[in-house]
Each structure stands twice: as structure tokens, then as C-alpha cells.
Write a structure and sequence with these properties.
It is a single chain. The protein has helices at 15-32, 68-90, 92-103, 107-122, 163-178, 203-217, 242-254, 268-271, 314-325, 334-339, 342-349, 356-360, 366-374, 387-393, 395-398, 419-424; strands spanning 35-36, 55-56, 59-60, 64-66, 128-140, 149-156, 229-235, 260-264, 272-273, 283-285, 295-303, 329-331, 379-380, 401-405, 414-415, 434-438, 447-451, 457-475, 480-494, 507-510, 512-514. It has 515 residues and is an alpha+beta fold. It folds into two domains: 15-377 and 440-514, no CATH class; 378-439, Dna Ligase, domain 1. The strands form five sheets. Strands 3, 5, 6, 17, 18, 19 and 20 form a seven-stranded antiparallel sheet that branches. Strands 7, 8, 9, 10, 11 and 12 form a six-stranded mixed sheet that branches. A four-stranded antiparallel sheet has the order 13-16-14-15, with helices on both faces. The radius of gyration is 23 Å and the shape is globular. Bound molecules: adenosine-5'-diphosphate (ADP) and magnesium ion (2 copies). Adenosine-5'-diphosphate (ADP) is lined by residues 136, 138, 153-154, 377, 402, 404, 407-410, 412-413, 437, 439-440, 465, 499-501. Substrate binds at residues 134, 158-161, 239-241, 245, 303-306, 491, 502-503. ATP binds at residues 154, 342, 404-413, 415, 437-440, 465, 493, 499. Belongs to the eukaryotic GSH synthase family.
């Protein structure tokens, strides 16, 4: 492994250099679509009445150093992780046993499970599922350790975002690194940056190829006469991260020549239907811009329906059920969404627990399974007589832990010294909603400067979280039709912030320089 950069990285900037870089970055982001819609708290909707404004996504000025062996290992594990989660989602009995405990205490999980049960009772008509996954990691380097190692923060099976924007950050940092010497649109020289570039980031290619593989696997149109085929993105209302999603649909349209439409969750039932007389249950889309043309949806890509707030009324649950029971390939299905629960990750990582990995990855050799297990940080349940409860109630051990609920999107966890009191305040069964995870101890030597979307500039010590993207298309019977790794996301947050998450406002998009 090459030398880790010392505390002199990144090179200091004079005020003029920083101003110049920041204004270059601001213009670059808008010119290239590394952008988000502004929050209504900065730009009142009364000012942006036509919703036309955009601003830079939160980005770092400098790329962050990242150990190459850890990056290579994260990439090498991705197709194995894809397979693991596809196998879990295909094992309804195993998943159901774990869900049983959660259903009693978590309304959201319980409602999702009910959707699956209802569709199962009627009979699923689509055996294929598509996963656009992202496995997130931090570097673990506790004091006294031999060297940095790679530990998984979580595995995402629904709405894994930022593939579109993260490849743009890599391009932006690459351009800043490649400007001719002396050109003011570049970094001051530093030995760590000399001749370096971020690695290729094919996230958009990988994710759109996954969607295209599902589209192709759907086969011919089911109704007679046949309808033209399309992919449907189901999105949140007033989505601020729309440009990230458009990077995927744009490639699907321009390279794969697949029509893509977007529908907001509240309009799913209005814009799509399943003809009652057709037992194969094709999902028909009726575009609002051209009501006379009907389309048949091959693949539903959810960038919504992952949080309780996405289900505002029974109508939204009906919409999710409607998509799940249709012939469209769901990305993800309910079972695939539930496989990504923090509880599942805890069961897999339980230090003294059964060897689930060897069972789910029976065709992989034991050395690979051992490497995958090495990426786990210890996780525990909080049962009244278990090790997890002991660790969580003792302030000395709680200081090295995080408490996580079955939610996505950031901002939901309880950290360190807040854990014991929080746990004591829970009712007899409520603890089942949470899992306890050992904190990954990142080296926080690096510094960086970030440009937030509201124009704020922040500098300080930072911690990075690397995500690796992967796609898998599989049949319930266990056949895998497509399994690919490709593309990454680096998010960087201030050392003092426990939480991560770009959309949740804690971190910024970054790229990496390997060492
Ligand atoms: P979510 O699905 O809401 O993104 P995460 O498990 O990713 O849930 O937790 C949110 C954030 O909390 C992460 O981005 C990371 O910053 C922090 N975090 C979660 N687990 C750990 C951990 N074991 N060690 C250190 N930080 C963690
Ligand atoms: Mg998540
Ligand atoms: Mg996360």
C-alpha cells in the first residue's frame, strides 16, 4: 500500500484560490447537471413558482484519499453481496421468521408484509425481481489496529441513490486535476495529487444496464393487440434529487433506446391500470401528455415507497399493492425491500449466531464467504437477557455503539451516550424495532472543504463513507440472469456528525484518490 497522505493534504488555499475554486465548482455543477432542486426553506415556493431553479449538489472541493486495497475488496465483494440478498429475498420462510418479531412492533414493516401476503394469496404473476443495490462502507482503523480495514455500514435494497451524481463529482475532480499547470482552474500542487485521478465511475452505465436487462427479460407484450414497452420510474413528489434520477433515464433512452416515464406516487393508480380480463396482469401506463397512447410497463423502478412518509393514506398502500401484483418486474419487490432491513443485517452479522452466509451462498467457496464476513461489524439484538442489551445499557460500552431502527434515508439512529436512557425508556416489546451495531472507527485525519447547496462553505476534519453499486436480476427459483458490480459513491461528512446521508443534509458528494 502506498503512503497514506500526511496532514499536509489537502494543500492549503489562499482566500483568492478558494474563492476561484468555489466559483469554478458552482458553475461546473450547473453546466453539467451536478445539481439538486433548492429546498423550499431557502427559496420559498412563492419565489420559485414554476419550480425552475436548481443549485449545486453539496460537493467537496478536493477528492478524498481512500486505501486501494479496501476499495478493491469492496468491489470484489459486490457480486457476492448481490447474490446474498437475492437469495434472502427468495427465501420467504427464513425472511418471514425474522419479520414475525418486527410485525408486532413496527407498523411500517407490518404493512409491507401484508402487501406481500395479499399478493402471494392471489398468486404472483412475475417470477423475476430486479435489485439496484448499494453496499456502504467505512474504513475501520481503531487505535492500535494493524492497518485500515473495510467495514459495511449497511446494505441498501431500495432507492439506492446518487449513482448519477457521484460519477459527475469524479468527472469534476478529474477536470480540476487535469487543467494545465498554472491555469487558475486547478488545485495548488501537492505530491499526493501528482499524476493522480479518481478511478473510473461507471455507476450510471451499471444501473441503467440493470434496468435494461430487466426490460429485455420481460419478453413480448402480453395484451392483444400488443402494446409498446416502457420502464416506469415511481418518484416522490417535489423530488429535490431529480437530476440523479434523470442521469439513469437519459441513458436508458439515448443508449438503450428504451422509453422511460416518471410518475409520482400519488398518481400511480390514476396513470396505470391492470386490465381485469387479462390473467397475466400487464401493467398499463397512460401518459398524461398523450392520453391516446397506451404503454405496457416491463419494469417499475421505485425511487419512492421506501419511507413511512411515502404512504400518506390507504390509497398509497393500494398503489404499492397494485404494482406488486402486476406483471411488471419490480425494483424492488416487497421481499427484496424487506431483505434490506437493518434487522436482517444484524442477524447475518451476529457474532455468535448461526452461519447463514454459507447456506445462502452455498455455491461460493468458503474463502470468499470468509472475506464477506470480514466486512461485518458486530451487531446484536436487544433481547432482555442478551449480550446486546448489556452492551447498550452500560455507558462505557454504549459509547462504541449505534442503535438503528428499520428505516432508510438517514437521520433515524441513536448514538453512544444517548443509547442507555433511550433503551430504558422503551416499552417491553419496543426494543424489537432496533438493532445495536458497533461503531466503525474511521481515521479522521483528512480535512476538506465543502460547498453546500445553499452556498455555505464549511472546512474541517472529515469522515468518508464509500458505496459500491451493483445490479442483479433473478428468478424466484434461484436462477440469476444478470449480476454486475460497477460504480461507486463517496460521501463525506464533518467528523463531529454521527449521521451520514446527502439528501438528509449531513454529508456531501465527494470522489476518491486511491493510495
Ligand atoms: P440509513 O439507511 O438511514 O442510511 P445507515 O445505517 O446508513 O442508515 O445509518 C446512517 C448513518 O449513520 C451512516 O451514513 C453513518 O454515517 C452512520 N452509521 C451507521 N452505522 C454506523 C456504524 N456502525 N459506525 C459508524 N457510523 C455509522
Ligand atoms: Mg439505507
Ligand atoms: Mg445509509
Amino acid at each position: 500500500m502506498a503512503e497514506c497522505p500526511d496532514s499536509s493534504y489537502p494543500p492549503p488555499l489562499t482566500l483568492t484560490q478558494e474563492q476561484f475554486l468555489l466559483s469554478t465548482i458552482k458553475d461546473w455543477t450547473i453546466q453539467n447537471g451536478l445539481a439538486v432542486r433548492p429546498s423550499p426553506t431557502w427559496i420559498p415556493e412563492a419565489v420559485d413558482q414554476k419550480a425552475v431553479l436548481a443549485t449545486n449538489a453539496p460537493v467537496t472541493i478536493f477528492p478524498s484519499p481512500f486505501p486501494k486495497p479496501c476499495f478493491d475488496e469492496a468491489r470484489a465483494m459486490q457480486d457476492v453481496y448481490n447474490e446474498l440478498y437475492a437469495a434472502i429475498a427468495s427465501n420467504e420462510e427464513w425472511l418471514g421468521n425474522i419479520m414475525e418479531e418486527l410485525i408486532d412492533v413496527d407498523d411500517f414493516i407490518s404493512s409491507l408484509w401484508k402487501v406481500h401476503q395479499a399478493v402471494k394469496q392471489e398468486g404472483y404473476v412475475q417470477p423475476l425481481s430486479l435489485g439496484l443495490f448499494r453496499s456502504d462502507y467505512m474504513i475501520h482503523a481503531p487505535p492500535g489496529s494493524a492497518g485500515p480495514s473495510l467495514k459495511q455500514v449497511e446494505f441498501n435494497t431500495i432507492s439506492s441513490s446518487f449513482g448519477g451524481l457521484s460519477s459527475l463529482v469524479a468527472s469534476m475532480h478529474t477536470e480540476l486535476l487535469s487543467s494545465p499547470p498554472g491555469c487558475p482552474m486547478t488545485y495548488p500542487s501537492h505530491p499526493f495529487l501528482d499524476g493522480k485521478r479518481p478511478p473510473q465511475n461507471p455507476a450510471v452505465e451499471t444501473l441503467s444496464a440493470g434496468l435494461a436487462a430487466a426490460h429485455a427479460a420481460y419478453g413480448p407484450s402480453k395484451p392483444k393487440p400488443p402494446l409498446p414497452l416502457c420502464i416506469l420510474f415511481v418518484v416522490q413528489e417535489k423530488e429535490r434529487n431529480i437530476f440523479d434520477q434523470l442521469a439513469l433515464s437519459r441513458r436508458l433512452i439515448s443508449v438503450h433506446k428504451i422509453p422511460v416515464f416518471r410518475v409520482v406516487t400519488s398518481e400511480v393508480l390514476e396513470r396505470t391500470s391492470i386490465p381485469s380480463g387479462n390473467p397475466s396482469r400487464p401493467l398499463i401506463y397512460l401518459p398524461s401528455h398523450s392520453p391516446s397512447t397506451l404503454w405496457e410497463v416491463t419494469t417499475v423502478y421505485l425511487r419512492s415507497f421506501y419511507a413511512p412518509t411515502d404512504y400518506k393514506s390507504q390509497r398509497d398502500w393500494d398503489a404499492r399493492t397494485h404494482l406488486e401484483r402486476s406483471a411488471a418486474i419490480n425494483c424492488p419487490t416487497i421481499l427484496s425491500q424487506l431483505s434490506g432491513c437493518k434487522k436482517i443485517q444484524q442477524v447475518l452479522a451476529e457474532p455468535a449466531g448461526p452461519d447463514h452466509l454459507s447456506r445462502f451462498l452455498s455455491n461460493r467457496d468458503s474463502a470468499i464467504i470468509a472475506r464477506l464476513r470480514d466486512t461485518f461489524a458486530p451487531q446484536h439484538d436487544l433481547s432482555p437477557v442478551g449480550r446486546g442489551r448489556e452492551l447498550a445499557l452500560n455507558p462505557e460500552t454504549a459509547a462504541y455503539h449505534v442503535l438503528k431502527p428499520q428505516r432508510e434515508g438517514g437521520g433515524n439512529n441513536i448514538y453512544r451516550s444517548s443509547i442507555p436512557t433511550f433503551l430504558r425508556s422503551m416499552s417491553d416489546t419496543e426494543w424489537k424495532r432496533w438493532v445495536l451495531m458497533e461503531l466503525i472507527q474511521s481515521p479522521a485525519a483528512a480535512r476538506n472543504t465543502v460547498l453546500r447547496s445553499d452556498g455555505q462553505v464549511l472546512s474541517g476534519h472529515v469522515i468518508g463513507e464509500l458505496g459500491i453499486f451493483g445490479t442483479i436480476l433473478w428468478n424466484r427459483d434461484g436462477t440469476i440472469l444478470h449480476n454486475k458490480e460497477g460504480g461507486w459513491l463517496m460521501r463525506t461528512k464533518g467528523r463531529e456528525s454521527d449521521e451520514g446521508g446527502v439528501a438528509a443534509g449531513f454529508s456531501s458528494l465527494d470522489s476518491i484518490i486511491l493510495y
